[in-house]
Every structure is written in C-alpha cells, then in structure tokens.
Design a protein that fits this description.
Number of domains: 3
CATH superfamily of the largest domain: Collagenase (Catalytic Domain)
Oligomer: single chain
Number of strands: 12
Strand content: 5-15%
Strand order of the largest sheet: 1-8-9-7
CATH architecture of the largest domain: 3-Layer(aba) Sandwich
Length: 717
C-alpha cells in the first residue's frame, strides 16, 4: 500500500517490496522462470505458540543443508566456477525451482519470510481465538482483535464503501488550493494522499536532534522512468486503466476522462522528479530552509497550511528549518500543482484514497488493484488473505508482534553466537583499515575511530514500543488501519524537540533483513534473518562466515561506502577525508561501478552502477571481511577439508547459496529501475572476481570467463 514516500535513513541488506507485488522483502536474483538487553527483557505472554508443521519449517530447511551447512545437490557441476560461480553453486537448484503464484520471486529469503509469516499467523490466530474483544486494551487483545477483524470478510463486504464516506466527503469539500493543502497535509494520519513526503528523522548534520524532512512524492507508478521512458508504456497504460476502474468503483463522474487527466498530471510531476541515483548523495539532499524561504522558493502551494494540517506545532513551523531533499523537484511540483485544474486534483486524491485503502475494503477493490499489480510484476495470484492480514497487523503493531515472536522463536544461543561473529568481523575490519594501502594516515586514524564507535544490535531492540494509545475496535477494519497510521505519525511528532532515541529500530525482529543506520553508526540484525542458510548453529564455521559473516561485513562496510563514508564517528554528515583520499576512493568506486554497468539483466537492460554503488561496495567489502574473519578464527591451524572442499571454498559457497533465487521478468525490469541492490547473480560473480583468494580457491585462470587480470581487480575495503 502506498501512502507517503518516506526516505529511509538506513542502508538495508535487501530491498523492500510491497506485499501485493511480492511477498518477499528482498533483493532477488535476475534468474528468470531480492548490545541489546538479555533475553529476560522479553516478557512472557498468556498464550503459547508452536512452529507450524509445513515444508517451510526451519527443521525441514536444516535437512537440506546437512551435515555441515551447504546444500551440495544444488550445484551445477557442468559449469566451471571461473565461468559463472553463481550457476556453479546454484544452477541445479534453480533448474528445479518454481516461483509460487503469489510471489514474484522464490529462494532462501522468500522461504525465511514465509516461515516468519507462518509463525506470526500461529501467534495471531491464537490471539484472535483467545483475546478478541469489543474494546481491546492490552497489546495481545489489540493484536488479536486487529487480525480477527481483518479476516472477517463477511463484515467487510457488509460494510461496503461506507468506511470511505468521511474521507471522500473531505475531498468533495475541497474548493481551492488552500483546501487542497489542508486536506493533503493530513495524509500522514490516514489514507489521504499528498504530493510531498513529510517525515521526521535525526538531523544528518546534528544527529542528536530530530529534523523535519520534505521530499518529492505524488507518483503512483514505481519510478519517474515509468512515465517518461517508452519501454514502460504497457505498464503506464495498465495504470491508467486501473485509475479508471478504481474511480468507477466509487461512482466518480467521468472516470475515463479523469484517468487520462491524472496520468497527464503525474507525468508532469515525474518530469521534475530527481532520478533515484541522485538521491544517494547525502550532501545533495540536505538543504535546510525555513518555511518562509520554502514559500518564496516554491510559490503556488500553501506550505504553512499544509504543515499545520499535519499537526506540526506552529512554533516549530515558524522558527525551525525543514530539510528539503530535492529543491528543484519541490519547486517544480509546486508549479505543477498551481497550474492544474482543481477538478483533476480532486479526482487524483480520490483515486489514491481508494488505492491506499483497498486492502480494508470489499474484495472487488483489492482484486481491481491486483490486476494492475500483476501488470507490473507478472505475479499470477493475489496472496492469501491471512498473509495480507499478517502484513496489515505488522503495519499497525509490528513491534508488539515482534516481542511475542522473539519470545517463541529466537533462542538465546543464536544471539550469543551472532554477537561473537559480529565481534570477529569488527576485528577483521580493523585489520583491513590498518593495512589499507591507499588511505592517508589522518583519514585512516579517523576511520578506525569510527569503527570503534560501531554499535551492533542483534535479535531485538533494547526496549520495546508501547501501544497503549492505539485505539482498536472489533469489526472496524478501516478505522483500525487508519488509527494505526495516525498512531505512527503521532509517535514521530512526539519525538520533536526531544533528544534522539538511539534505541529506535527501523525494522521489526520478524523481518528477514539487516541494516546499517549511518546516523547512529550502528548495524542491526533482526532475529528472523538469523536462520539457515544465513546462520546455522549446526553448520561448519566457514559456511557461517560466508553467509551471515558476509551480511555482517556488508552492513559494516556500508559505513564506508560512497554514502556512509560521509558520516563521521558520531553519525554527523561532514567531511573527514583528505581531498586526495576522496579522489582515490572515487577512482576505485568508478572502476567497480563500470563492472556493474556492463552487467546485462535482460536483453538491453543493464545494472545502474551509480544507483547500486553503495550496495556493490558493501558486498565486496563484506565478502572480504568474511574471509579475513574466518582465517583469523583458525588461529593458525589449517582449515579442515569437507566433502573435498577447502575452507575458503566453503566460505564462497556459503555466500553464493543465500542468493539461490528466481525472479519473474516484469519484476526484473522494475527492480532494474528502482532497486539500489544489484541482482544476486551479480552479487555473487562480481565481488568474487575482484578477490584474489577466490582465484586461488577455485583455480581460476585467464581462460575462464570471470577472470580479471590482477591490475583490474578492485580493492577498496
């Protein structure tokens, strides 16, 4: 569901994809068919839950990796490792892999995400059975009531479009641009839409305080390219059809004509939007200005009215700076709005209201939206209702659900083992920095100081969110979801003028992902990713170092990629490099980027090396750190040989194994435009061909396809 496009202040290991478009939260391979408190801090609840008995359980997955963590049957022994290591490691498994109809991809990330959903389903069904009440007060009661209400299809069908009445009436009341600003300003509190994204984050240049951020928004298609490039004309046409159908469902007059007008309007917005690659420069997107200055630079929009409607305090609006992300885009959008017919703007708001709320309305709304989603992603089937219910409940009360999830599904020994691994990777990074050959002594000293400030959090946050002020009512699906949105916005409004809470997590423990927050100088590993094939307590050490060790190293390296390197040891956006070091770094980064630019994901479709630069640097750095940490763990002893595979070989296979996925063609095209991560085939092959140890481990020679001469191999971290 698209509401307001917030810019995330962290760098994730994987991509975020919507549930409707894909049930994964991952970056997927372009292979066609993406110190926390001790466990006593997790309080017990009044119910019990068990792992569901399905083929996707952890126990079933572990059998595939027996006896020491590598699923050797998935390799394609007809392919030389030096020609295509991704297919050598994964080819046979991919040949037999089928993408489920309700997904756009399938592989290890999806399997773990599905396992997490199944576990959450067990929890929520138990809560729904024992804790559903008319007026819930405890978190357990609110979770159970929210989930049960979403699953009550008959009640939703009976209510029809009645829940939309007040929001539709608000749109009908819009008569001028002041009314438009007043209504769109309420978007962070519900299902209304807005042409601009408003968010509250730590200030990049003073991360001890919170700042208000303003960014470009207003598009219904995934990216500006979908409006402006001819290769997406089919998807753009499908979007126009969807707009017409959505307006027709609520009997909006002249739906066909208004759909055409909305497409024309959003195309004008797209023309002034910044490209995604340009949004990766943290200096470029940091443009503080007062509301008075904003109003002068971007006339034609009632900025003060809009901000007051978002419930920002008047004294903050009058005296504080707003961090504007894309000044020229904001100016351009304001001009487009001022020159657009109010009738079109009202139809535009109405369509997006229906689109945002479709999951909480009768089935015909969700089915209409999914027809459009299918045109974007190629996904044949809508996910089961319980999956959508789990997602909706997470959106409203994710941390409350995560608290119960951790209690049942995150063993303390996994946490302890991960904490040791993260310490090993941190030590390996220290050695790499100390031995860096291209960095000056002063910058190297500052880099080591930054590494010393790293905070590493594992499993779940230091403290849990509280939901006592969230109002949930039995049978009120639409209002429950809207209340959840408003609660979240109020949660962030309450942060203004207070010290930054460094215990805040950007992901729930049940999320299969990991991230680096440059403003906190921290890396976070949620509980749900700490399972095979990423982390397996029964696996050989080399496999764990290659898999989860590579993830840990990846996230650490983000603090020194082309974006993260611009933040100092306190998370402050400032230059702490010499000019010569910056020049040398940029030369190495450009050299690496050229390798990714040359990678073709579909005929005529290439990776955008600039867009994916940070993730590419992190992959290369992460795999190097994993190797170093593994070597250090041997304490000078020779690595054991298992099934004829050396320790180094098992590290590389551990990394390659986690990218064993397939992807639908339409999703490939979408991710090539919007995803800051490279496709997993590239995430396997390109880092390895830049690592000398890989050549030795697999006896790669100049005759092999992936071979790079030593002077062309990029070594950054």
């Amino acid at each position: 569901m698209f509401r307001v496009s917030f810019k995330m202040p962290f760098k994730s290991f994987l991509s975020f994809l919507s549930l409707t478009a894909s049930l994964s939260v991952v970056s997927i391979p372009y292979t066609v068919d993406a110190e926390a408190k001790p466990s006593s801090a997790v309080h017990s609840s009044t119910h019990s839950a068990t792992v569901p008995s399905t083929p996707t359980t952890l126990e079933a997955e572990e059998k595939a990796f027996a006896p020491w963590g590598i699923n050797l049957s998935g390799r394609d022994m007809h392919i030389l490792p030096g020609n295509n290591f991704f297919l050598y490691a994964n080819g046979t498994a991919l040949a037999h892999l089928t993408i489920p109809p309700d997904m756009t991809s399938y592989g290890p990330f999806n399997k773990l995400a599905e396992l997490s959903r199944l576990r959450e389903k067990v929890i929520l069904e138990d809560l729904a059975a024992h804790h559903t009440v008319a007026i819930p007060r405890t978190d357990e009661e609110k979770l159970g009531t929210f989930y049960a209400s979403y699953m009550d299809k008959d009640q939703i069908e009976h209510q029809g479009i009645q829940p939309l009445t007040s929001d539709l009436a608000a749109i009908h009341m819009v008569k001028n641009m002041a009314d438009f600003a007043r209504l769109t300003g309420t978007a962070p509190e519900g299902f209304q839409f807005t042409p601009f994204a408003l968010s509250i984050n730590p200030d990049s240049k003073n991360p001890s305080r919170y700042a208000i951020n303003l960014d470009q928004a207003g598009l219904g298609l995934p990216d500006r390219d979908y409006y402006l490039k001819p290769e997406f004309k089919t998807q753009k046409a499908a979007y126009q059809t969807y707009i017409e159908q959505a307006l027709t469902l609520i009997h909006w007059p002249h739906a066909q004509e208004e759909a055409h007008n909305i497409i024309a309007f959003e195309t004008k917005l797209a023309q002034v939007h910044w490209a995604r690659a340009d949004l990766r420069d943290p200096q470029k997107i940091y443009n503080p200005m007062t509301v008075a200055e904003l109003s002068k630079k971007a006339p034609g929009f009632e900025w003060t009215t809009w901000l007051l409607a978002a419930n920002l305090p008047a004294h903050i609006i009058d005296h504080s700076h707003i961090i504007v992300g894309e000044p020229s885009a904001i100016i351009g959008e304001a001009h487009v709005l001022a020159t657009t017919n109010i009738k079109t703007l009202k139809a535009w708001l109405t369509f997006h209201l229906v689109d945002n709320a479709a999951s909480y309305l009768p089935n015909r709304f969700e089915q209409t939206r999914f027809t459009f989603t299918r045109a974007l992603s190629g996904q044949p089937a809508l996910p089961a209702r319980w999956k959508r219910a789990v997602k909706a409940t997470n959106a409203a009360m994710g941390m409350a659900l995560g608290k119960i999830y951790v209690q049942h599904y995150f063993p303390p020994q996994s946490r302890a083992a991960m904490q040791k691994l993260t310490a090993d990777l941190k030590n390996a990074f220290r050695q790499r920095l100390q031995n860096n050959s291209w960095m000056s002594p002063s910058t190297k000293k500052a880099a080591l100081r930054k590494l010393d400030h790293f905070e590493i959090q594992v499993g779940y946050p230091n403290k849990w969110r509280h939901y006592e002020n969230l109002v949930i009512r039995k049978g009120e699906v639409y209002n429950n979801a809207r209340n959840g949105i408003a609660f979240e916005w109020q949660y962030w409004l309450n942060r203004l003028e207070r010290p930054v809470d460094r215990n805040e997590w950007d992901m729930t423990p049940q999320t299969v992902n990991a991230y680096n927050n440059p403003l906190f100088v921290e890396v976070v590993f949620p509980a749900a990713i700490l399972q095979p094939p990423f982390f397996n307590p029964k696996a050989d050490a080399a496999v764990n170092y290659g898999a989860i060790g590579g993830v840990i190293g990846h996230e650490m390296t983000h603090s020194f990629d082309d974006e993260g390197r611009q933040f100092d040891e306190h998370g402050c956006l400032k230059n702490w490099w010499t000019k010569e070091d910056v020049k040398r770094f940029n030369q190495l980064a450009s050299k690496l980027g050229a390798q990714y630019d040359a990678f073709e994901v579909l005929p005529g479709v290439h990776i955008n090396g600039k867009l994916t630069m940070g993730e590419n640097i992190a992959d290369l750095g992460g795999l190097n750190l994993a190797l170093d940490a593994y070597h250090a763990s041997l304490h000078g002893k020779p690595a054991p040989v298992l099934n004829g595979l050396t320790g180094d070989q098992r590290v590389f296979l551990g990394w390659a194994q986690v990218w064993r996925e397939k992807l639908r063609k339409d999703t490939i095209r979408r991710l090539a435009v919007i995803d800051p991560h490279s496709p997993p085939q590239a995430r396997v092959n390109i880092p390895m061909r830049n690592i000398d140890t890989w050549y030795k481990a697999w006896h790669v020679t100049p005759k092999d396809t992936l071979y790079l001469p030593p002077d062309q191999r990029v070594k950054i971290w």
